Each structure stands twice: as structure tokens, then as C-alpha cells.
Amino acid sequence: MALIEMTVPPLPHYITSGFSTLPKGGHHPSRNNIQVFDLLITTYGCFYIGEEDARFEVAPGQAVILRPDRYHFATQSCAELTGTYWMHFHVGGPWSMIDNAIAPIPLEDPSPVFVEPFAAQPFTIRIPQYTPLLQPEKTYDLFEQLHQLQPRAHVSSVRFAQQQLFHELLRQLAASTDSEHPSPATACAEKAASYLRQHYREAVSAKELGDHVNFHPVYIARCMQKEYGCSPTEYQLRLRIQQAKLLLLQTDLPVAHVGEQVGFEQPAYFATCFTRIEGISPRKYRQRFS
User: Fold this and answer.
1) The HTH araC/xylS-type domain covers which part of the protein (predicted)?
2) Secondary structure percentages of the chain, helix, strand, coil, to 5
3) In terms of CB atoms within 10 Å, which of 190, 202, 267, 283 comes out highest?
């Protein structure tokens, strides 16, 4: 497995991200020396891309990172509609491509030496260039949170929040080199989260979720609490609020209609849930950020 090894400080820097679709017969554009790393993650469909002599077939739940100093090109067209999250980021410190079989070399001399008090000690981060995601739904959630922050990216505190989300995403990618297979509890939570994401507008009962995941609802709730810090019901509620925020900023739909579009039957309940999670009413959220 090819790894990208980065020496920090400085920490890698998030630039921008988004979501794109490629139609059947479409393909990723060819680029050369774009000067930034390009992270691509497929959520549905499949796309095919090459980097110099390497070839990547990126299926759902897989990620590839294209280097800033290489030529990238489509190796074939998409056979179906394909959705991908993408992200550009910059690495300001030294970086190199290595093989996973090579053990990390400590940057510091193991012999006793005097270290300046409070001196920054460098270390390395290793991220696979091409890998299945250990927890796809968590990664998708991070991209969605980044997207939610984009309208306010001119605010310094928001840019800082984006960097924090980006570093958590890097941590998840780095973790995929340590464990090829998620634990049963992680797999259960991921499967439940994926189903809720696909059906967030619907009233999904605990029994329906249990039947789909093929585990007892109590076990599912315990797994999701461990992996996501909330119950399945709360997770679905957060998904609805995320989508509502997008509609509030990107459309002129009345607030009540926005709630209806994301699965709330009662406008008052939508407003209550939105305010509890975001700390501001839907109407004021639109006025402040649109």
C-alpha cells in the first residue's frame, strides 16, 4: 500500500471541498501539477482515474488522494451515475511517498540529548493514497459539516472549525492503515447510520432499523451511542437538521415547507428541534447566514 508521509509541524491545511456527480459516460477531468492534494471519495457509482503509472478504481466507500505534482487522467468513463466528495488541501512541510511495509523511522535521535524547553518536536502522519474507508458514514458526516460551514468561511472562527474537521478526517484516513476490518460494533453502527441517511425523511421505527441491520434495536442503539455519541433517533434528527440548513440557505422555501421537506410533519416541532440543536431558530438562521 502506498502511503503519503507528512512531517509536521506545520499541519496540513484545508482549502475547500464539495460534492460532485458524474453522469453515465462522464469522467474526471485531466489535470497536471495542480499544486494541491486532491482527496476524492465515492459515495455511489464508480470512477476510474490514473496518476502517472498507477490506476485507481474508486468504488463506494473508497478514497484516493491525487498528488499535487503529478499528471491525473481518466482511465475510462463512468458506467453509471457517480457521486463523489472532493477536497483540496495543502501540505506546507516535507512529504514523500512510501510503502506500507517500511517501518516508521523516528525523527529524533534515541540517544540522550538536550532538548530545548518548549521546543516543537516534529512527527510524521501517514495516510494511505488509496483505501477503503474504515467508517464511511462518519467520513460523509465530516464532509457534510464542512459544507454547512462554507457560507461563513470568511469568518476566522469558522475557518478554524473547518481545519479541525479536516484534521479529524485525516485521522480517520490514517486509522484505516491500522485496521483492515472494523469491529462488529462499528460495522453495526455504520450499517444503521447508512440506512438512516438514506431514509432520513421517513419515520424509521426501531423495529424497521433492527430488521434492516439484522441486530436487536437495543444493541444498535448501544453501538451508535459508542460510535456517534447519540441514539439512532437523535442521529436521524441531526441529519434532518443538516438538510434543513442547506434548504434554508440555498432556497426561498417558507420555513414550514423546509421542515416538511426534511421529514417534519409539524412546523412547531421542526422549529423546536432546530433551535435545540443549532441554538437559533430556523428563521433567524436564514436571516443571519443567507
Assistant:
1) 190-288
2) 40, 25, 35
3) 190
User: Is the entire prediction scored with pTM above 0.85?
Assistant: no
HSE of 78 in the Cβ direction (CA atoms, 13 Å)?
22
- Measured between alpha carbons, how far is 51 from 99 in angstroms, rounded to an integer? 16
pLDDT in tens, 258-268: 999 999 999 99
Q: Maximum CA pair distance of the chain?
A: 68
| Pairing verdict, β 54-58 and 13-22 | unpaired
Question: Taking Cα atoms as reference points, which of 278, 287, 279, 282 lies closest to residue 268?
Answer: 282
Q: Nearest CA to 191 among 142, 227, 243?
A: 227
Q: Tell me the per-residue pLDDT of 136-181, one tens digit each, with 9 for 90 and over.
A: 888 999 998 898 888 888 888 889 999 999 999 999 999 877 655 6
Those residues with Cβ within 8 angstroms of residue 128's Cβ, 6 or more apart along the chain or in another chain: 1, 2, 3, 4, 63, 100, 173, 176, 177
Those residues with Cβ within 8 angstroms of residue 202's Cβ, 6 or more apart along the chain or in another chain: 263
Q: How far apart are CA 231 and CA 189, in angstroms?
A: 10
**For residues 223 and 206, what is the distance between their CA atoms, to the nearest angstrom?**
14
Checking phi first, is residue 233 left (phi over 0); if not, alpha (psi -120 to 50) or beta? alpha
